[in-house]
Amino acid sequence: MELFKYIVKFIYRIRWWMVLFPCMAGIIAWFLTRNLEKTYDVKTTIFTGIISGYNVDATDTRNATVHMSNLMNIITTERTLKIVSLKLLARCLVYGDAERNTSYISAIHYQQLVSGIPRELQALIDKQNEEKTYHNLVAFERPSINNFIYQLLNYTHPYFSVPLLSQHIKVARLGNSDMIEIAYSTNDPGIAYNTLEILNEEFVKQYHELRYGETDNVIKFFQEELARLGKMLTAAEDSLIEYNIENRIINYGEQTKQVASMDAAYRMMDNDLLVNYSTSKALIDFYEYKLGDVAKLIRTNNEFMDKLHQMSQLNTQISTMEVTPDEKNRKKLEEQKNILSNAEQNINDLALRLSAEAASTNNVSYETLISQWLDQIVLAEKTKAQMEARDIMRENLNEDFLYFSPIGATLGRKERHISFVESNYMSTMGALNAAILRQKNLEMTSASLKIMNPPLFPLTSSPTNARMIILASILGTLLFIIGYFLIIEILDRTLRDKIRTERITGGTVIGAYPKESKLRYRRYNKAINEMAVKQLSTALLPYLSVQKQRVINLLSTEEKDGKTHVARLIEEYWSSIGLNVRRITYDEDFLSEDSQYVQANNLKELCPDLEEDEILLIEHPVLKSNPLPPALLNEASINLLVVRANRTWKNTDQAMYEHLLQVKQKEVPVLFYLTQADRNTVEDFTGQLPPYTNFKNLEYRLFQLGLTAIEHKRK
């Protein structure tokens, strides 16, 4: 609570500083800001449809936030703003008027713009064609420090500088919606309006070019690659067809399967024929052994051998025809088989006839053995003929193997090539379809870019910051004043009041005596002084016990602290109320440098005639240049250290005060009394001082935090 009171008093003490200087700062700020340029704000809202719009590409939906960021960044890119600046410059040069304000640029700003244009650039301005003027400006611009357009775009022109445009154009997404807001502020309403109007057209165009340009190039590449692969695939398939026709391949797998099955069948047939032939040869040898000379007789017969040879030829022809069947030779095959049957019958009849002749000679019948022997001879000849025919077919089959083997490898290579080209063709077609799908998706998203709120020409300017500047200057000055005095309050070692004195010194203050008022309250000086003396008397009397000698030591650490004046006032006041008071002072009643004073062991040595009921006021010399006898310090009822409130409490003062504390006895107090104090400090001890006006009563009540108190009026 004491701290709060101290803060209130601190603020009240610097009240005029807190009023005058902020008011002066506010007046200066008003004077400097009275002619601030007006600013015109223009906004436009664009619906993108990137987040909530229909999207045929699922991956594109996941990148919606990235697309939104890209779209917002395109608006403030250097390329977009450069085009906007050039088109705005062309529009202002074509439609601007130096005599009147237009919806494109004000007259004064047009005059400033035209005044700096060089002659060679003025010749490029076509007042009838804005588009032609723009292209002329683009052609005129060169990256040179001497080029006017280059300087205009890259220096600090408020309307056409690309760096300044990127700073002043604000792009923001409205919450989590699909809408973005573009805002721009400048001191010319026409410039602000036309800048956003051109920007709306240009950034959509840039967005389309960036997104479509990439996709169109990809689609063109895939189309060319697809055409090339299609030609390769057609050529590879045509080559395979020609190769199949050339080599009479219908179905290579089935054809080779047939050759392999024929080879297996022929192998089995060869084994069977070889077995049959070997068996027949063994049986022939067996029957010839049984027949003996009869078999030799028959074999040596020329007619038998001719018929056997004829039958062998017929078997060979029949076997050949059977191996290579032909519809044309079927009839001939039947005829040959009939001839063979007749030949077999004839040779059988011949053999029987020859064996019958031999049997008539030997009286032995060989008919059965001859028949069996002939059957085996016929079978052997037939088997031999079939084996010869199979050899022919084996040669043909081997030729087929030699024919089909390289064809298989070639067909495999051609089919692998076709498969490779076909897979590339299909993958390229898939990539082309994906690119076309993305292009359609871009068409859908780009088509959804709609200007919901087009920019409007501003008719009134936006409020300036003059009020905020004035208010900020007042508040800033106020805070500076408070901070400045607060720093002084913390660092300053001037005693000034009770709280500061007790904080700085560590002692106790029992009262304060006011300094004389020169102007406002000078007629109340006497009453105020009387109140201060009465308060000091009231504070001192409790320390004066009747059981021992009543002595008050008046001390000071420096000259002119007012202890003589205080001692005289106390003496006069106590004498006026009937108290027996004696005041003794140095250099009058005793010498400060006398050994009697310096080495005094008791009060009797200093004042031998002191009566028991007297109150003795001893005014001691300044402590910093004269020692104080410890006996006199400890025999006193109270030691009153008088200091001026308006002086600095130095380290030497603190050292002397601490020395007093060390020398004195515990029960003997050393208290501070302030002189030359202000009214507020004195009122902390005496209560409210005159005059007792309504304002003063309210002021005092507020200082004492009597916010709701009701006080009796003083008469």
TrEMBL record:
This is Exopolysaccharide biosynthesis protein. The chain crosses the membrane at residues 12-32, 468-491. Keywords: Coiled coil, Membrane, Transmembrane, Transmembrane helix. One of its GO terms (molecular function) is protein tyrosine kinase activity. Residues 326-353 form a coiled coil. One of its GO terms (cellular component) is plasma membrane. Signal peptide: none annotated. It comes from Phocaeicola sartorii.
